[in-house]
Amino acid sequence: MGKADGFLWVTETGANIALLFVLTAVKRYCSFCSHCILNGTLWSCMYTYSPTEKKWYIPSYLDKDELCVVCGDKATGYHYRCITCEGCKGFFRRTIQKNLHPSYSCKYEGKCVIDKVTRNQCQECRFKKCIAVGMATDLVLDDSKRLAKRKLIEENREKRRKDEIQKSLVQKPEPTQEEWELIQVVSEAHVATNAQGSHWKQKRKFLPEDIGQAPIVNAPEGGKVDLEAFSQFTKIITPAITRVVDFAKKLPMFCELPCEDQIILLKGCCMEIMSLRAAVRYDPESETLTLNGEMAVTRGQLKNGGLGVVSDAIFDLGVSLSSFSLDDTEVALLQAVLLMSSDRPGLTSVERIEKCQEGFLLAFEHYINYRKHNIAHFWPKLLMKVTDLRMIGACHASRFLHMKVECPTELFPPLFLEVFED
């Protein structure tokens, strides 16, 4: 994502491909540019100048194809009291700033015809024509005045930007009473199923450094599986999965769905929600993630313990989310959005699930407005994390197939196999 002259755009790269994981799952209710994210609409870049072809910004007050009064080239605006092109504007400014006109000399007695072809052949006649058509020397600023003007412009621009942000925060709707009730249900479900809660730092235990460092089984894609680390992870995977299931069962709209759809939704979102819960417990000081609220692991330990490249994606997400300062309610609503993804294959109640997710999204956006985060475009940026989590889920599904080949089946807890096997 980028920025140019106050406009946002998304370049057509792999990031856009990643969006396809959530475009059908997340479809409405957004502000600013999040509507484009959710509907797959990409922004266009607003350029004033192209590196391959000169396309200068033309002010609205100019008539179409209006010409420079000095040389007849295409004009770009009023410069020093006259309508001129960029070339003559720059020539006039340099001449005055550097006091060059006394050194100009015409070889043809000052009778040169100045047009866009000949304008660079005689500086004296070009400058005389600039004066003749009315270009004002007193409007050309010296370096100190130009810098002062530029600074003033930047200060005014920054002030307008802050005013616009403040205005947008004031105008954005906050949750209705009905939405607050929905938010409370989701938040309570998360708190009740989130191991250790806000005390995870005090209660976590670090996995010993010697575990997860000795590769024993070669895994595909150049990864390694440390069976001792893998064994440690399997001890916490079953309660972690159970907590995700309990979270879902505490949501009435989930429990009202057909049993078959409940199973599909849980199998689809389980890794995504577990990854989110680990990512929000990233500790930059120790550079660890805390799994299931109790086991702190390094990037290398998680990678060698079976997750391979998926561990990098989870750690990167943790690093990114650390700047968002999400509260429990925001984490809970993210989980609800992931849970109610209507694009999971095999669902029968697609419209019903989609409507539930739309309700979560609208309440979520309004809660973000209520929180008033001091981060520009916070809502669309947060929605992009849904994309990251969906990617993690897809990568883990592929990784799981490799793990089943490389590791003995008896090492996998039954619930782990039940959730992640097709």
TrEMBL record:
GO MF assignments: nuclear receptor activity; protein heterodimerization activity; sequence-specific DNA binding; thyroid hormone binding; zinc ion binding
**Main localisation:** nucleus
**CC annotations in GO:** nucleus
Q: Where is the Nuclear receptor domain?
A: 65-142
Membrane spanning residue stretches = none
Q: What does this protein do?
A: High affinity receptor for triiodothyronine (T3).
Listed name of the protein: Thyroid hormone receptor, beta
This chain's source organism reads: Xenopus tropicalis
What lineage does the source organism belong to? Eukaryota, Metazoa, Chordata, Craniata, Vertebrata
